[in-house]
Amino acid sequence: MPAPSEFELIRQYFAAAGASRQDVVLGVGDDAALLDNGGAQLLALCVDTLVAGVHFPTDAPAEAVGHKALAVNLSDLAAMGAQPAWALLSLTMPEPEPDWLAGFRRGLHALAAAHGVALVGGDTTRGPLAVTVTLVGLVERGRALRRDGARPGDRVYVSGTLGDAALGLRQWQAGERAGPAVERLQRPQPRVALGRALLGLASAVVDVSDGLAADLGHILARSGVGARLEAARLPLSQTLQACCSPTEALACALGGGDDYELCFTVPVERERSLQQAVAGLGLAVTAIGTIEAAPGLRLVDEQGREVPVPSRGGYDHFGAAP
Ligand code: ADP
Ligand code: MG
Predict the structure, then answer these.
(1) Residue 261 is inside which H or E element, if any?
(2) Where are the domains of the chain?
(3) Could you tell me which residues are beta bridge partners of residue 90?
(4) Ligand 1 site: residues with CB under 6 angstroms?
(5) Which ligand is nearest to the Cα of residue 47, counting in written order?
(6) What digits encode the pLDDT tens for the residues 154-170?
(7) CA 97 to ligand 2 center in whole angstroms
(8) pTM score
(9) What DSSP character marks residue 316?
(10) Mind listing the pLDDT tens digit for each residue in 75-119?
């Protein structure tokens, strides 16, 4: 029997664990949980762990590790449309090296300050290098961006460009230590302002952490719909197109992880408002396809012919290796 995937494990063991409480508006299954503490806004909570050698190269600069540990969580709150506020940091390391810690702190602090996030607690332990950040934010009641609201006819959008982090990882492994793709891998820029701008406009949102095909797949599964993506519309950077064949670039864009862009769906009648809402952000959003009633993800070429979705699936910690 094949190993259960990360998502099957979560469903089997944790989706319904613990007490059920009336104040849980949204539990396991979205980018963050939503809790009602009686305030004017809901609390949005998420946690993500970075393990050395799995989520970042063991020789990654400490400053980049500090940045990324917070960035991946900011990205999950961005996908809810929440405003980040408070963080807890759990740090496990083999030895307390002052230079490494100073660099790590610099990266974490700069990004936290830029997003108005206070570090309010955590835990420090000895062991193999791993960093866990828990992030809490606030989002207006009834307006949070979830994965389950996509409807047939909605347009599918993605921010920025896709596949650069996958290229960056390949370049890092080949010994390159600088350049735009490596920068994308080491210092992802979470799309918090875009998430806030999408409130009231997007019908569903997910952040692209494991690859577009896998993460859009979460929207499709939770919304009970399918999608048709136009391969030629996927936003690819100059760097990706210069360094890869068209087939490789498509595989990076659909299956490469660590992009931390937002993928979202918008009802057609709100597309004009969307353009106005994102105009001042300095971040492109690109329409890449359409939500359809038939389940599953279909990729089509410029002639509208169906082409196979490149096999490199999204990252799954327990499933078959990509
Ligand atoms: P993301 O990629 O957005 O961080 P994940 O794929 O890690 O989300 O997780 C999917 C969903 O499952 C999220 O709602 C997350 O909170 C939940 N989840 C993941 N692991 C566990 C766990 N061990 N216990 C409870 N919930 C979990
Ligand atoms: Mg996410």
Answers:
(1) strand 261-266
(2) 13-140, 155-307
(3) 123, 132
(4) 10, 14, 28-31, 48, 76, 209
(5) 1
(6) 999 999 999 999 999 99
(7) 31
(8) 0.95
(9) -
(10) 999 999 999 999 999 999 999 999 999 999 999 999 999 999 999
